Amino acid sequence: MTLSKLTIAAARDALRKGDMTATDLTEACLKEAGDAKALNAFVHDTPEQAREQAKAADARLARGDAPAMCGIPLGIKDLFCTKSVGSQAASNILSGFRPEYESTVTQNLWDAGAVMLGKLNMDEFAMGSSNETSAYGNVVNPWRRAGDDTPLTPGGSSGGSSAAVAADLCLAATGTDTGGSIRQPAAFTGIVGLKPTYGRCSRWGVVAFASSLDQAGPMTKTVRDAAIMLEAMAGYDPKDSTSAEIPVPDFEAMLTGDIRGSKIGIPREYRMDGMPGEIETLWARGAEMLRDAGAEIVDISLPHTKYALPAYYVIAPAEASSNLARYDGVRYGHRAKLAQGDGIVQMYEKTRAEGFGPEVQRRVMIGTYVLSAGFYDAYYNRARKVRALIKKDFDDVFATGVDAILTPATPSAAFGLGEMAEADPVQMYLNDVFTVTVNLAGLPGISVPAGQDDRGLPLGLQLIGRPWEEGALLNTADVLERAAGFVSKPGKWW
Amino acid sequence: MSIDTDTARRVAHLARIAVKEEDLPDLAKELSGILSFMEQLNEVDVEGVEPMTSVTPMRLKRRADGVTDGDMQVKILSNAPDAREGFFAVPKVVE
């Protein structure tokens, strides 16, 4: 077996026992990543840094001073600023940008001894659900429909991360999630994706999309790995004023496998018209599995669910239009060539027209519009009020003693690249219908691979937890993962 | 609320994104489509609801208003498309 197929937990144990070295493991991953150019998952390779970090990890392991992530090779989403390594949020406007600093989350991982293999592809500025808005080109899902070579989307925006983990190019990857960008690609590729509670992981050094929604999280092969990796990523950071000053527990120790007596809510509003039968069946089976494990299943209502998507598509673009104002061709990245007599306004306008792709331009303009004089109350303030109601829906349900909420992760399995090209932008936005509420309410959510559709593609279920209770959420997810017994892997064609 | 070509031109300018005159009608149509999707929010009774300002009910951290960082001109300019004599350089701003 290639070492790159290992889970974090298995690799950690083998490294500590001395059955292999971090260098062996890193070399195996570098080889797999090098052979997988057809997936277009890695966009900046850092083999030298990887080898150096692996060597340091081996020294640390030899000293017996090795945290769980020590020597574990990771892929890092291009949204994270990594010192001296290209970090451009998959946008041409940041082409050539090499940060002089390291994001807090990646620094935490390197401090824990993890190894960076390279940077991973994504949708431009994390705006997209199919990884088709990237300046680096599409990522291809390692999964294919049975008997069909059509290239499929790995989901988005963390599509490079999902593809790299599913194809065993690395042991795990970082992702970020603003409306579903960790959980939807995880579901499309048969892996685990966790969006922590807002404030659990520092946003410092992560290129900002929508600051009140953005949250980094792990994308892994198992729920246990998500628990291990989250512990290393999380923690209070004085450089992010919204990062929470609360202790980070030992999440792995909370995986007891015992969920007897816990109450799982099934929200009736998530039963959408036109939802494929196999998603409905999977959802019902997931509820049965949790019931068989001793949980109580209750019907719940989240009455404002229907309004989450329109509220999100006001709030996220509004924040994006403000955050992306910094890309002006002055301090970093691309600057347009100017014509004779062009002034600074032409410089801004040409630079941003050349640097931003169509979806980013669209969202920046929508955001500008909803924040403009005369529309601020009608759109932006109304959306923020609806957001308060959506959060209250969850508060009310949790107040009745519900511990977690079970929903489908996505309304379909992975679709074909290019299949949505002619569709209205709103059709693409519908991918986030089950995930976006969680960001609006700041809750933790996890996508767990739970089955396959009739063409062999993975399908995921989502569990939503109470704020700051990632430990209990991971425990429920671990029970679901084991009961579902999803072990399939994509056949290697790349 | 539908967006006409003039509004699209104004929004593009406010967003500092150059859009060709011939592309404005399509842009207006696209933005109108997205906005009509958002119109659903008008169905919700938001009477007396405070707009959400903080995701988690926490008071933002305060710190002393002191200098904690600095002296890194070279690093700050290292990614600039045009830097001269220790400054960012831009086209002439004042006539």
TrEMBL record, chain A:
Catalytic residues in the record: K77, S157, S181
All residue ranges annotated as the Amidase domain in the record: 24-474
Catalysed conversion reaction: L-glutamyl-tRNA(Gln) + L-glutamine + ATP + H2O = L-glutaminyl-tRNA(Gln) + L-glutamate + ADP + phosphate + H(+)
Domain of life of the source: Bacteria
Keyword Transferase included in the entry's annotation: yes
GO terms classed as biological process: translation
Pfam families noted in UniProt: Amidase
The keyword Nucleotide-binding is annotated on this UniProt entry: yes
Keywords of this entry: ATP-binding, Ligase, Nucleotide-binding, Protein biosynthesis, Transferase
Gene Ontology molecular function, alphabetical: ATP binding; glutaminyl-tRNA synthase (glutamine-hydrolyzing) activity; transferase activity
GO cellular component, one term: glutamyl-tRNA(Gln) amidotransferase complex
EC number annotated for this UniProt entry: 6.3.5.7
Function noted in UniProt: Allows the formation of correctly charged Gln-tRNA(Gln) through the transamidation of misacylated Glu-tRNA(Gln) in organisms which lack glutaminyl-tRNA synthetase. The reaction takes place in the presence of glutamine and ATP through an activated gamma-phospho-Glu-tRNA(Gln).
Family per similarity comment: Belongs to the amidase family. GatA subfamily.
Subunit organization: Heterotrimer of A, B and C subunits.
HAMAP family linked to this entry: GatA
Protein name: Glutamyl-tRNA(Gln) amidotransferase subunit A
Source organism phylogeny: Bacteria, Pseudomonadati, Pseudomonadota, Alphaproteobacteria, Rhodobacterales
UniProtKB/TrEMBL annotation, chain B:
Key words, A-Z: ATP-binding, Ligase, Nucleotide-binding, Protein biosynthesis, Transferase
EC number: 6.3.5.-
GO BP annotations, alphabetical order: glutaminyl-tRNAGln biosynthesis via transamidation; regulation of translational fidelity; translation
Tree of life domain: Bacteria
First-level EC class: ligase
Enzymatic reactions: L-glutamyl-tRNA(Gln) + L-glutamine + ATP + H2O = L-glutaminyl-tRNA(Gln) + L-glutamate + ADP + phosphate + H(+); L-aspartyl-tRNA(Asn) + L-glutamine + ATP + H2O = L-asparaginyl-tRNA(Asn) + L-glutamate + ADP + phosphate + 2 H(+)
GO terms of molecular function: asparaginyl-tRNA synthase (glutamine-hydrolyzing) activity; ATP binding; glutaminyl-tRNA synthase (glutamine-hydrolyzing) activity; transferase activity
A Pfam cross-reference name: GatC
NCBIfam families tied to this protein: gatC
Family to which the UniProt record says this protein belongs: Belongs to the GatC family.
Quaternary assembly: Heterotrimer of A, B and C subunits.
Known role: Allows the formation of correctly charged Asn-tRNA(Asn) or Gln-tRNA(Gln) through the transamidation of misacylated Asp-tRNA(Asn) or Glu-tRNA(Gln) in organisms which lack either or both of asparaginyl-tRNA or glutaminyl-tRNA synthetases. The reaction takes place in the presence of glutamine and ATP through an activated phospho-Asp-tRNA(Asn) or phospho-Glu-tRNA(Gln).
Name of this chain's protein: Aspartyl/glutamyl-tRNA(Asn/Gln) amidotransferase subunit C
Organism: Rhodovulum imhoffii
